[in-house]
Amino acid sequence: MLSTHYANADASLLEERVEDELATSELPFVITPHKVNYLLPVTYNPSPNNAPFEQSDEVHYPLDKVEAKFQISFKFPLAYNLFGDNGHLFFAYTNQSYWQVFNKDISSPFRETNHEPELFMLFNNDWQVGNFINSFWGFGISHQSNGASNLRSRSWNRIYGTMVFDGGPIAIGTKVWWRLPEDEKDYIGDPRGDDNPDIGKYMGNFEINAVYGLEQHRFTMLLRNNLRKSNKGAIELTWSYPIIGNLRLYTQYFNGYGESLIDYNVHNQRFGIGVSINDLL
Q1: CATH number of the domain that 20 lies in?
Q2: pLDDT at 15
Q3: Torsions phi, psi of 150, nearest 5?
Q4: Would you tell me which of 54, 63, 243, 262 could form a disulfide with 48, CB atoms 3.0–4.6 Å apart?
Q5: In sequence order, what are the beta bridge partners of 53?
Q6: Domain encompassing residue 205
Q7: Neighbouring C-beta atoms of residue 198, cutoff 10 Å
Q8: How far, in Å, CA of 233 to CA of 250, rounded?
Q9: Counting Cβ atoms within 10 Å, is residue 79 exposed (0-12), middle (13-18) or buried (19+)?
């Protein structure tokens, strides 16, 4: 079964997360969070990316700078201890949506929805790295798509490796990936073939997630970069604080490339405020 080894057991965010998951992982009517689940009723992007919609056959109206954003993410264990007393297999799914809820001129559509199913293995570990303990390492495969067609279609498949480090009030997750290659399209608008062959230039091949707990405050940071001269990447910062029960006030700031698949090659800034129901990445 999942377990952890701690650098500071009295104040370990990772320990709290694992204990909460183990307490409910096998209950039939409980869904275990994977990434953060949140609803941001109001987000502001000063420069919405209209280009994909201008190229479509639909009647075009400018996108609103203010829209709603939400994420639903869960996982469930398929098997524990596949290799002796270690090696745990999980399935996970994450849905991230952008909703032009205030844009009545175009009937308040969902501008973009990204779907990401994953299958991954996770292993307990106890390597000491400075003041941190590498509590978990693992690998997996993920598919990410926006479910759109024609010129708005975006998707990619990745094999990835991950490590999670516990430093008491700080937890750090690292993730590296390799994109599975796809065939080139024979012509523009070909429904088969690679929808976004240059996505690696903007999304890179690694990211770092960190969370810091200060009393009941939670601060997180995501960093991503392509490690090339073009220096494409992204940073996302969040802050949350409990308000009632499991509900937390949640704020998010994003700056960079790849916030969503439709905008993977466009530099975006976004600030949003709303609520979340879990506080770790």
Answers
A1: 2.40.230.10
A2: 82
A3: 55, -135
A4: 63
A5: none
A6: 9-276
A7: 10
A8: 23
A9: exposed
64 secondary structure, DSSP code = P
Q: Is residue 15 part of a domain?
A: yes
User: Is the separation of the CB atoms in 93 and 113 below 8 Å?
Assistant: no
Q: How far apart are CA 90 and CA 182, in angstroms?
A: 26
Instruction: Identify the DSSP state of 180.
Output: P
Q: Would residue 216 be called left, alpha or beta, if left means φ above 0 and alpha means ψ between -120 and 50 degrees? A: alpha
Which pLDDT does position 6 carry in this prediction?
Answer: 42
CA 188 to chain centre: 30
Overall domain count for the chain: 1
> Is residue 281 domain-resident?
no
Find where tokens 């965010």 sit. Answer: 13
- Looking at the annotation, which residues are catalytic? 143, 145
Predicted confidence at residue 11, as pLDDT, reads 66
Q: Mean pLDDT of residues grouped by 10 in the chain (281 residues)?
A: 52 78 65 92 96 71 93 94 95 98 93 98 94 95 94 95 95 97 87 92 95 95 89 95 95 97 96 90 54
Asked if the structure places residue 1 within a domain, the reply is: no
Helices (H), the chain: 13-24, 51-54, 199-203
End-to-end CA distance of the chain: 21
Q: Is residue 95 part of a domain?
A: yes
Residues in Cβ contact with 268 at an 8 Å cutoff, skipping those fewer than 6 apart:
45, 47, 49, 254, 255, 256, 257, 259
